């Protein structure tokens, strides 16, 4: 810039500064307006076309509007959507489909464990758990002692516990 153009820009700055400051104050408030005025004049100066302009006031006004538009776009992009989290209302709920799949997997592991038991152990276990028979009733029905019923129930429970533990670790 030449000395004459620098003086012309300084005079233009003094005459347009207040108008531009009022323009920004109405739109963004007192705190941010001075920074936006400076940015608008800096854009005009960086363009290097001040000396060739016929109507620098119109260019300055258009540049100020564009600055506000750019700022609004940037603010809109940087804003994230925030949803309040209410522990009581928005508690995590495991989907039913997941529960059904896990239940089916567990039933398969349970069935495999039952199939690996001896016939007598499986029968004792089923009589106790499914028919709700007591150990004494099972002993009489099968013709064995109460201690043998306990032994078969312990075997069954150990086998099931191992199978379900392996399933829960694998799943």
Classify the beta-strand content into a percent band. under 5%
CATH topology of the largest domain: Rna Polymerase Sigma Factor, Chain: A
- Given as residue ranges, the uncertain stretches (5+ residues, pLDDT < 50) are none
Query: What distance lies between the first and last C-alpha atoms, to the nearest angstrom?
Result: 74 Å
Overall average pLDDT: 86
Helices and strands, in order, run as HHHHHHH
Q: How many distinct helices?
A: 7
Helix amount: over 70%
Question: Domains counted in the coordinates: how many?
Answer: 2
Structural class from helices and strands? mainly alpha
CATH class of the largest domain: Mainly Alpha
The gross shape turns out to be: rod-shaped
CATH architecture term of the largest domain: Orthogonal Bundle
Domain RNA polymerase sigma factor 70 region 4 type: 108-160
Protein name: RNA polymerase sigma-70 factor (ECF subfamily)
Organism: Sphingosinicella soli
GO biological process, one term: DNA-templated transcription initiation
Describe this structure in words.
This protein has helices spanning 3-28, 33-47, 56-78, 96-116, 119-129, 135-142, 146-170. The chain folds into two domains: 3-77, Rna Polymerase Sigma Factor, Chain: A, CATH 1.10.1740; 109-170, Winged helix-like DNA-binding domain superfamily/Winged helix DNA-binding domain (Arc Repressor Mutant, subunit A). The chain contains seven helices and no strands.
